[in-house]
Amino acid sequence: MQDAKAVVGRWHRHNKPPVSGLFAVAAMGGGTGEIVGVVIAGRPNARALQDGFTVELTRNCTDGHRNACSFLYGAARRAAVEMGYTRVYTYTLQSESGASLRAAGFVVDAVLEPRPSWSCASRPRMQTDLFGGEQRPAEGKIRWVWPASARRKETSEAEELAVSA
């Protein structure tokens, strides 16, 4: 897990490594033996999704190696199923196409509007770094789910928005 977090720390465009995780999967480059990408799976961040049978893919990052993202999403999904999980969720920014997720069998579950802040009176959160820079992207997200049968009913509009992005 520590090696996967180190890769995320080096390569991820807009997020820091997660604090914890359940398992990680790495992709190796063709013939070189070098790691070209990792995916980290953990418990779902949304409490409503924490049913003991659901896993969330919290980070996926590569060095740009062709098809590495799709490979990692598919491998993590298969590993989760082998461990007894029945649903797999992940999120992308609305500006990301989701082509790798579609290739791995995921479907759009919801389009989530951006939150101005995660901070509240009972649980204050630091939203910026020491220099005032945003610590997280300010745009909305798309929630993806596998299998397609786990998709929520009101998804048709969300999927139309995701495909047009």
Q: Could you explain how this protein is built, in words?
A:
This protein has a single domain, classed as Aminopeptidase, CATH 3.40.630. It has a six-stranded mixed beta sheet with strand order 1-2-3-4-6-5, with helices on both faces. Helices cover 24% and strands 25% of the residues. The model has no long low-confidence stretch (mean pLDDT 83). The chain is α+β, with helices and mostly antiparallel strands and 165 residues long. Strand 1 (23-28) and strand 2 form a beta hairpin. The chain is globular and about 50 Å long. The protein starts with a helix and ends with a helix.
Topology readout:
Blueprint: H1 2-11, E1 23-28, E2 35-42, E3 54-62, H2 68-82, E4 87-93, H3 99-103, E5 107-112, E6 141-146, H4 155-164
Parallel strand pairs: 3-4
Antiparallel strand pairs: 1-2, 2-3, 4-6, 5-6
What portion of residues is helical? 10-25%
The overall strand count is: 6
Strand content: 25-35%
Provide mean pLDDT, rounded: 83
* Tally of separate helices: 4
SSE order, as H and E? Answer: HEEEHEHEEH
